[in-house]
Amino acid sequence: MQYMTAKKLNKSDDKIIENFDEYCPELIDPENGVYGIKRTKLSSVNYFYFSEKLQKEQFQYFTNIPSTK
């Protein structure tokens, strides 16, 4: 899975991303396959999103790059 972020990730964020499905993500945009979870702490709120469309686009982009050898 590929993710975009607007902040520097820490180890606890990595664990959330690694186990994204276990946090029961909500379907936000069915057309593009965007799912999200909201993690609330005492002084902050973090949102994590996953996009099936973006994942497919990135996979196609990175698998179609010609070799530079």
Task: Summarize the model shown.
This protein has 69 residues and is an alpha+beta fold. Helices cover 29% and strands 26% of the residues.
Would you write up a description of this structure?
This protein is of the alpha+beta class. It is built from 2 helices and 3 strands; from the N terminus they run αβββα. It has helices at 11-18, 52-63, and strands at residues 26-29, 34-40, 45-51. The chain has a 3-stranded antiparallel β-sheet. Strand 1 and strand 2 (34-40) form a beta hairpin.
N-to-C span: 27 Å
Helix content: 25-40%
Succession of helices and strands: HEEEH
Task: Figure out the total of helices.
Answer: 2
- Most strands sheet: 3 strands, antiparallel
Give the helix/strand class. alpha+beta
- Average of pLDDT: 84
Number of strands: 3
Beta-strand percent range: 25-35%
Shape: globular
Task: Spell out the key features of this protein.
single chain; 69 residues; alpha+beta; 3-stranded antiparallel β-sheet; 2 helices
